[in-house]
Design goal:
Largest interface: A-B, 27 and 24 residues
Shape of chain B: globular
Structural class of chain B: mainly beta
Structural class of chain A: mainly beta
Radius of gyration of chain A: 14 Å
Order of helices and strands of chain A: EEEEEEEEEEE
Largest sheet of chain A: 6 strands, mixed
Radius of gyration of chain B: 13 Å
Number of helices of chain B: 0
Strand content of chain A: over 45%
Number of strands of chain B: 11
Order of helices and strands of chain B: EEEEEEEEEEE
Oligomer: heterodimer
Number of strands of chain A: 11
């Protein structure tokens, strides 16, 4: 089952605008990661935010995490055509034995940045 | 640093045939993952290796899927016999260690079409 659910499913904006994508999840997490997938570069890790962090920045990316609401958001500022891709949040969970962590991905948000 | 290598990139087979995928992780990465990504969805973990041992195969359909990682380096994933619903992209990923704080590096994937 997929724990993370991204919203919206698709987003279309103009170059230079900001894009915000949201992720909701169901169970407690240790960390939340965001990945980007496009046809040219495959699936690439963008940023990781720990459960005790509320906000994190990396270049034009800003991620927030609200563990009380079990939600995260990814903001891309000053978007470029090259940002066109699918964006996935991935949450970690331990296996039944509690000895291993695995990532569970959402269905993703398809972002289209128009030149 | 060389990335995760996968082959073949594309494969078309008929149902009930068998197929095998190969993955070579980033040198020195102890953890290797196989994911299945169906069109329009996020990747779903099939199996996770730590060195040459399996740490999670709870979502692997063991009646038809098998995977091995001999010598703790490269890995193969096999499907026998294939079903129509196995049509998907099979992604291999690796990380330095297993754990919630380790980012995963993904290969380009193998797109499987079962007819």
């Amino acid at each position: 089952s997929q724990q993370g659910e991204e919203d919206p499913q698709a987003l279309s904006i103009q170059e230079g605008e900001n894009a915000t994508m949201n992720c909701s999840y169901k169970t407690s997490i240790n960390n939340l990661q965001w990945y980007r997938q496009n046809s040219g570069r495959g699936l690439v890790h963008l940023i990781l935010i720990r459960s005790n962090e509320r906000e994190k920045h990396s270049g034009r990316l800003r991620v927030t995490l609200d563990t009380s609401k079990k939600s995260s958001s990814l903001l891309i500022t000053a978007s470029r055509a090259a940002d066109t891709a699918s964006y996935f949040c991935a949450t970690d969970a331990t296996n039944s034995g509690g000895s291993n962590y695995k990532l569970t991905f959402g269905k993703g948000t398809l972002l289209t940045v128009n030149p | 640093e060389a990335g995760v290598a996968q082959s073949p990139r594309y494969k078309i087979i008929e149902k009930r045939q068998s197929v095998a995928f190969w993955c070579n992780p980033i040198s020195g990465h102890a953890t290797l993952y196989w994911y299945q990504q169906i069109l329009g969805q996020g990747p779903k973990l099939l199996i996770q290796f730590q060195n040459n041992g399996v740490v999670d195969d709870s979502q692997l359909p063991k009646d038809r899927f098998s995977a091995e990682r001999l010598k703790g380096v490269d890995s193969t994933l096999k499907i026998q016999p294939a079903k129509l619903e196995d049509s998907a992209v099979y992604l291999c990923a690796s990380s330095t260690q297993t754990g919630p704080a380790y980012e995963q590096y993904f290969g380009p994937g193998t797109r499987l079409t079962v007819t």
